[in-house]
Structure formats: structure tokens, C-alpha cells
Amino acid sequence: MKTVLVTGGLGFIGSHTAVELLARGYQVVVADNLANTNASVLDGIAAIAGKKPVWANVDLADPVACRAFLAGMPDLAGIIHFAAYKAVGESVQKPLAYYRNNFGSLVNLLEFTAEHPQCRLIFSSSCTVYGQADTLPIREDAPVKPAESPYGNTKQVGEEILRDGARAHGFRAIALRYFNPIGAHPSAKIGELPLGVPQNLVPFITQSAAGLRGALKVFGNDYPTRDGTCVRDYIHVVDVALAHIYALERLFAGKGSEPVEVFNLGTGTGSTVLEVIKAFERSTGHKLQWEFAERRAGDVIAAYANTEKAAQGLGWRAERSLDQCMADAWRWQQTLPKK
Ligand code: WQD
């Protein structure tokens, strides 16, 4: 069976993808230096999949370490590249660390695929490349807008590095533009592990409901939307993980005409912040404490995906509802330490 490397495989989307790869009989190697997670996630993956992936604690941004690590896997069939720093706010404080880490690791991996073009690569991109799109739902051919943060820039330039590398070296890749991945595996054995105060909406909601945080602050209630709060496309992390399997198998089958293809990963439905709060309360029976606060700098008003290209090209659609996302997120939160 094929061996697939999952970089950042102990992270949120990476761990859920490792589970789905193992379930389909792939040999899975996880590369993760624990920069933003902890080793216990490996046990969670094993508990669900019934077998443990090989784990390499390697800094992929180190060219010597990365090359030595990959030299041991000359027949690698695929790389799913999640490993990257991803906090929007932190990227503004530490842009050079973000560029060194996110571009360094990507270039090191692409030097391997340039020498081993049978190895197909999937790149974690983000809807953040669209900024505030002019047309909703957002199609993949919507114009890429100037990045609002160094994090967003690493996704935009990362896609360009992919395209330039594929054109020069003949390898094949797919970039997946995530909208807002949320939720957790229904087994509650893996989920999101935000370190520090959660910047994202759903982990803050579940931590607030668990008594770990104060009331949720809703950033802005005067946006031109149906209830004045921002709209996003919240997609279950298991749906996102499954899309990676479909994308990898598209690459293995040699489908697609371009060296690098781009697909949106969303549900196609936008939900406001207040609707997410209501979905949490409806699906968990838990009353959430929240209050309106000032708008957050950099927030776009609305973003949700046009899902047709992914449906046609990947044969994939998101299937899980917002209520299921919130129920799964809450079940996971209840397994975490209470302080
Ligand atoms: C969603 C909505 C906030 C927290 C970012 C990145 C994206 C990806 C996901 C990495 C917004 C509101 C939030 C809170 C709130 N990151 N909110 N109170 O900003 O859409 O996307 O995270 O892969 O690339 O850009 O997600 O969850 O931070 O915010 O009101 O305490 O919730 O204003 O409208 P976002 P988010």
C-alpha cells in the first residue's frame, strides 16, 4: 500500500486526515515538531484508527534535517503538507518567523518532489487569499486580494511557489483553500487543541461554556449582514479531512490538466456569529454567555465557498451540519482539562 507523509499530522486538520488515511489502508508517516500541539494526539489517532502512524519529530524548515528525513522514504507516494504557523495576529508580530518557517518547510518538501515527481503534494491554503471577495459565494477564479497579514501572505505566496516549482520541475500538486474548519472527531478522541487564549470563534465558545474563559465577545454587530455579525463558511473538520483523501486520489489517478489545481473546501453556506452561537446552544443545550464588542481589525464581512469545482473535480461535498460541528466540538471540549 502507498505511504503518505502528513506534515503537521498531530495538528487539528492533520490528525483528522491521518485517521482517514489509516482507515483506507495507507501507510502513514506523521512529521510534527510539536510547535503547536502535543504528542498525546498520536494516541488519539491510534485509538480511532486501531494503529499508530510512524511519528518523526523533525523541523521541516531545516533543509539538512528535512533532506535527511526524506532520504529515508524514496518511494513516498504523497505528501499532505499541513505544518505551518497559522495564527493571523501572531504573524503580524513575528512575520520573519512565519516566512522562515512556512516558506522554508514548503521549499524543502518541494525540492524532494522535484527529485521524486511520482510523489504528489497537497498544500494547505486558505480562503484568506480572497480577502473580502467581490462576489459571493466565492469561486476559485475570484481574484486573490492583497494579504491582510503575513500569515495570509504565506498562503498566497505558497501557492505561487507551488506553481513555479511544478512548472519548472514537472511535479503535480493540489492547493486546498479551507474556509473555517471547526468541530472534532465524533469519537472525541481528537479535536482542536488551541494553545493559549483561542483566537478563533468555536474554540473560544467551547472554552467559555466549559468555564475556562469569560463571556464570548462578539466582534461587531453593525456589519451589513442579516443580523449585523460577520458571515463565515464553517465546515466540519472530518469533511475537510475527507476532501484531502479525494484530492490525493485525484493526483494518484493523474487527473486534471494543470500541474497545480486549486479547490475551495467549504459547505457553500454562510453562517453569522449569532447563528453559530444559536447552533451551539441548540445542539448542546448549553446557554452561552456572550456580549457585543468592537469590530476586530482585519475581519472581512462575509466569506463562503462556491463548492461546484470541488464537487466536480474531487467528487466531494461537505456532509456534516453546523449543529453536528458544535455538538462534536463540545463533546471534545468536555474531555479536556477543566483548567
Ligand atoms: C470567525 C468569526 C470573528 C472570535 C481565521 C483565519 C483563517 C483560518 C481560520 C487558519 C469572525 C468572530 C471570533 C471571537 C468573534 N485560520 N469572532 N469572537 O477570522 O474567519 O479565519 O481563522 O487556518 O485563515 O483567517 O476565523 O474563528 O477567528 O472568526 O466574534 O472571540 O468569529 O470576528 O467574524 P476567521 P475566526
**Backbone structural class:** alpha/beta
Roughly what percent helix? 25-40%
- Strand percentage: 15-25%
CATH architecture of one domain: 3-Layer(aba) Sandwich
Shape: globular
Which ranges are low-confidence, i.e. pLDDT below 50, for 5 or more consecutive residues?
A: none
User: In this structure, how is the largest beta sheet organized?
Assistant: 7 strands, parallel
Task: Output the CATH topology of one domain.
Answer: Rossmann fold
Would you write up a description of this structure?
This protein is of the alpha/beta class. It has a domain at 3-183 and 234-267: 3-Layer(aba) Sandwich (Rossmann fold). Helix content is 40%, strand content 16%. It has 11 helices and 13 strands. A 7-stranded parallel β-sheet has the order 3-2-1-4-5-6-11, with helices on both faces. Helix 6 (150-169) links the parallel strand 5 and strand 6 (173-178). Helix 9 crosses helix 11 (322-333). The termini are far apart. The model has no long low-confidence stretch (mean pLDDT 97).
